[in-house]
Amino acid sequence: MMRHLFLASLLAMTAMAARAEIYECIDASGNKRFTNIPSEAKGCKPLNIVPPPIPSRAAPSAQPQSKPAPAAAPANFPKVDTQTQKDRDADRRKILEQELANEQKLLGEARKELAEQEATRLGSERNYQRVLDRLEPYKKKVKLHEDNVESLNKELRTLR
Asked: Vertex 146, ends 144 and 93: CA angle to 5°?
């Protein structure tokens, strides 16, 4: 027990001694340089750096956290009328739906290619690891198109 107390106090003293003074030096051409070596810091000003506070483990306050108010737009900020915004939203939806249809088509083709490869490779190949290695690019292609379809569906759900 005494040994643990000694080690704890030794660590605490070491941590306090590890704090160094930092100096900011500005040369004749205006370049800044920082150092913690006092012999190199002649004519430099010491920086007053306060260590960050240690967060407490106290229970969170019972008061609800208020959200900051959204920043107001400047007076000269360009605005779009309602109809123009609706037209833009409709165009965006149309583009996303076209992309989704294209990705679904590509996904179907990728799945078909994978199924064909699985059918032909499994019957003729004896080494199972080689089969897996050959199928890997086809599986990756299917996964890519599945992820794209999922992302496009998510984007479409967020539209107004």
From this structure: 105
Residue 45 phi/psi, 5-degree rounding, is: -100, 135
Q: Let me know if 155 is exposed, middle or buried by CB neighbors in 10 A (0-12, 13-18, 19+).
A: middle
Provide the percentage of residues in the chain whose pLDDT is more than 90. 31
CA-to-CA distance for 133 and 3, rounded, in angstroms?
58
Q: Which residues of 42-75 are buried (b: 16+ CB within 10 A; e: fewer)?
A: eebeeeeeeeeeeeeeeeeeeeeeeeeeeeeeee
Q: Give the list of residues 6+ apart from residue 33 with CB closer than 8 angstroms, or none.
A: 24, 25, 26, 27
Tell me the whole-structure pTM to 2 decimals: 0.49
- Show the tokens assigned to 156: 């479409």
What average pLDDT does the chain have?
Answer: 81
Angle at 139 between CA 138 and CA 142, to 5 degrees: 90
Altogether, the residues listed in the chain come to a count of 160
CA 114 – CA 87 distance, rounded (Å) = 40
Q: Which long-range contacts (CB under 8 A, 24 or more apart) does 5-9 make?
A: none
Three-state SS for 22?
A: strand
